[in-house]
Protein 1
Amino acid sequence: MKHGDAPQDDSSTLEGQKKPLYVVNSDGVYTTELSSGWEAEEVVLDLAINQFQHQCQQARLRVEQGKTAPLEYHMYQRRMDITVLAQSTGFFKFQVKRHLQPAIFSKLSVKKLARYQQALGMTSVELQTLPLDEQQP
Amino acid sequence: MTAIEFDHQQTAHCESGAMSALLRHSGLNLSEPMVFGIAGALTFASIPLVKIGGMPMIAYRMPPGRVIKGLASRLGITMKFERFRDNDRGMQALDDHLDQGRPVGLQASVYWLPYFPKDMQFHFNAHNLVAYGRQQSDYLISDPTFEAPVRSNYQALQQARFVKGLLAPKGLIYYPTRIPAEIDLPKAIRRAIRSTTNMMLRTPLPFIGVRGIRSVAERIRAMGNHRQAQQDQNQLVIGHMIRMQEEIGTGGAGFRFIYASFLQEAAGLFDNPKLEGTSRKFTDVGDEWRRFALFSAKMLKGRMAFDYAQLADQLTLIAEMEADSYKSLREAI
C-alpha cells in the first residue's frame, strides 16, 4: 500500500480513533500513515456485532416466554456464547446448558451464581432479571 | 501517586508495540517491524477443528506471547514473567512495580478495558499494554493500539487481567531484567528469517504456511456446493477471516506490510539489494490480501454476487505469491 492510500472511511466503530498502517512513500521507503478506518473492515465487524444483537433479541423473547433463563440473554449481551461462558466461569458446557433452563437457573446456589456474576461483571439481581430497556451487546 | 516518564508510541500491533516500548524505556531502540520480524511472528495457520468464539481458528501471526519470547531468546534478553492465582496479589504486585518506578507489560482482555471503543470490545484475552503509573484511583496506561496514553480504574483493570478462559492472562506482568550490551542484530535477523521461511514453506501439515492458504482456498471453493442452509454460517466464517486479517493490530493485510517493512530495514542494515527486492514482494502480497478482503466485504454486503470460486482463486493467487516471496527470501539471506 502506498502513502496516501491508507483508507479514510471514518469508521464509526473506531469512535474517532485512528490507527497506523505501514505504507510505502514515493521513494519506496516504508513509513506509517494513520487510517480512520476501512469500509471493508467495518462490514465484517458489523456482521459479527449484528450476530450478537440477533441472538440477544431472540434470547429476550425466549426469556419472556419462560423458555430460557435471563442468563442466556446476558451471555449474548456480553458478546459470549456457551463455549466462552463455560471457559470464563470454569463450568463445563453441559452444565452451562443445564443452567440456562429456567427451573434449574432459579435454584442455582449462591456460589454458582457468583461465578456467573464474576464472569459477566454484574450483580446477582441484574443476572436474574431482564433489563427493561434493550441494551446493545 | 506515581508517574514514570514514559514515551508513548502508537503501533500497529499490540504485542510488538508493548515489547518495543518496554525495550526503548530500557535503552534499546528497536522499531516495531524489527521486533515483529526478529521474533519470527509472521505465519499463516488455519485449523478448522479448533474453534475460537464459535469460529474456526485462523491466524496470520504466531500465537500470543511469541513476539515477547521469540525476540528475547533471539537477542539474549532476559524477561521476567509473573502470573498470579490471586487477583488482589496480582494488583498489589503491579502497584509495587509502579511504586518502584518500573513500567511493566500486562496481558489483559480487550472486552473489559474501559477505554476501548464499544465495537472493538471482544473476548480476546491476549491484548498487551504497558502500565506506567497511578493517579488517584486510575492506572496510567500506554496502550500501543491508541494514539495517546489512556487510563483505567482498578476494578476494570482487575477484571481485564484476571478473566478466565482461552489464553487467560492470569494477571501476567512482564518486563526485561537484563539486556546484553552487545547485540548481534544481523545474526538474529538471519536466524529469524530462516525460521519463518522454513515454517511457511516446509511445515508438513496442511493447515500451516503456504499449504494452509491453499487449503483454505479449497475449503472456500467447496462452500459453493453447500446447501442453502449452510450459507449464512459460511459467510460468517469468511467475515471472521477478514476480521482476523484486518482488525486492529495487523499493520494492515494480515501483518504482511509490517513484515515488508522489517525486510526493508534489514536490507538497509546488510546493504543487501536482493533483500530489498523481497520487501517489495511482501508489499505486493499484502496488497493482494487487501484485495481479497475488499472482494469478500463487497460480497458480504451484497454489492457483488457471492462468488466462492472468485474468492478461492484470489487466495490461490496469494498462495502462489507467498510461496515465491519466501523462496526468494531464502535465496537473499
Note: The domain at 2-30+78-178 of chain B is CATH 3.90.70 (Cathepsin B; Chain A).
Protein 2
Amino acid sequence: MAPIEILDPTVEPRHQPLTYVPRPDSLKGKRVGLVENTKFNSDRLLHRVGEILINEYGAAECKMWRKHNASVPAHAEIIEEAKRSVDVIVAGIGD
Amino acid sequence: MTTTTFASKRHVVADFAQAMDLCYERGWTDGLPVVPPTEPAVGRMLDAVGLQPDAQLAFITNRQVAVTAEKVAINAVMAGCLPEYMPVVVAAVEAIADPLWAYHGPATSTAGAGPLLIVNGPIARRLEINCEDNLFGPGWRSNATIGRAIRLIMRNVIGTLPGLLDRGTLGHPGKYSYVIAENEAESPWIPLHVQRGCAPGESAVTVLAAEAPRQWYNQLSSTPDGVLRTVCDDMRHHNSTNGQPQYVLVLAGEHMRTIANGGWSKADIQKFVFENTQNSIAHIKRMERLAGAVTPQDETAMRPLLAQPDDVLVVAAGGRAGAFSAYIPGWAGGRRSSQAVTKVIQDRRA
C-alpha cells in the first residue's frame, strides 16, 4: 500500500513583541492605577492592595477603573486616562 | 478543485490506521478517532464552500491566531463532516470570533461552557440536521460532526486545550458536539433566525456559549402559563441565578402544541419567562449567591434572571411525544461577557 500524506491541523500562534516600562525603584509618591475586572470582590481586593501601597509603601494616591468584563483587555479609555494620570498600574483577577 | 496550494505542514504515514494513530500521538483529537485529513479530502471541503485556503475567516485577538479556511477544512475532515456541511462550520467559526461572543471568556472559563449551534433555514433540512426525536442525542452525522469540527478548530487552531487554556471545572458532553436545528416545518412560531433579524428564506446559525441542557417535565397542564410556570420555577433557582446570561428554551412537540393552542407567540413566552423567573435579592443572598447581609429592602427588591425578555431564545425542537422540554443556560459569565451571535450561512461559490 502506498504511503499517505496528511495535513497538519494546528497553527503556531503569532508572536507579539511586548515591551514593559521599567519598574520604578520605589512607589514613594507614585500615583497608582487599579484595574478591576468586574468579578465578585475584585474591587474590594484591589482597594485593600491600594491601601497597603499607600500606607506601607508611600504611594501618593490610588484610583480605580472597571473593565467592561473579565474576558476582555482594559478598553481604550482606561489606557488613555491611565497614561495621563498614573505612574504604575496594578491589574489583577478577582474570582 | 479550488487549488492545490496548502500552507500546512505535511506528515507521511504508511496507511489510514497509522494516520489516525499519529493524530492521537500529536494531541489533535477530542478523544475519539478522527478521519485523516488528506489533501484531496481537504480540497473537497474548500470547493464546497468556495473559499481559497488562505482566506482568513476569523482572528482571535487574545491568542493572536488567524483562522484560515484551510485549517477549518482540515479540522472539518477530521471531524467527519461531509463537504456540504462546510458553510455551517464557516458561519459558526465567524460567530465564535465575533466580539459579542467574546471568545476568550467562554472558551477558557472554569464555568465550562460549550458552543451550542442552532441552525435555521433551508440548509438545516437539506443537511438533515436533527430537530426532532432524541434532539441532543446521537445518530445524525450533521449534528455530530459540525459541532465536533468547531471543537477541533478550537483545540487545534486556537489552542483551547483542556487543562491548559480550556479550564472548565466540569465541562459537559455538549463540548464534543452541540448542534440542533429548529423544527420550522412543525413550529407555529417565527423561526429563531428571523426573530434575530435574518430574512425568512435565509439560512443561519445562532451560537451561544452554553451549559448542558436541563430537561423539565409537565404532563399536567393544558395551558401556556401552566406549562411555563414549571420551567420558570426550575430556571429561577439554577446555577446562574445572579449572572444574567442568555438562555435557550427548547420547546418540544407536546409543550409546543399546548402553548401555541393557547395563542401565545414567542414574544409572549419571552415576556412570561422574564416576569416569572425573578428572585428577591434576599433569597439570592440567603442562598450565598450574592455577598452581604440581608436588609429589609432585599425582601421586596427583585433581581430579574434575564437582563431583558428577548434574552431567552425560544426554539421549537424535540420529539412529538413526551411532556418534556429543556432550557439551556448560557455561560455563567453572563450576557455582559458573551452573547449569542447569529450569522447568515453564505454560499460563496460563484
Note: Residues 42-57 of chain A form the longest helix (16 residues).
